[in-house]
Amino acid sequence: MKTLMKISALVVLGMALSAPLLFADTGEKTIEKARATVTNAAPDDWEARAKAAHMCIKKNVNLTEAKGWLDTSLSIKESALGLEVAGDYYMVNKLYDKAIANYVKSMLTLKEKDFYANTDDLQIKIDKAKKLLKA
Question: Where does the record locate the signal sequence feature (predicted)?
Answer without folding.
Answer: 1-24
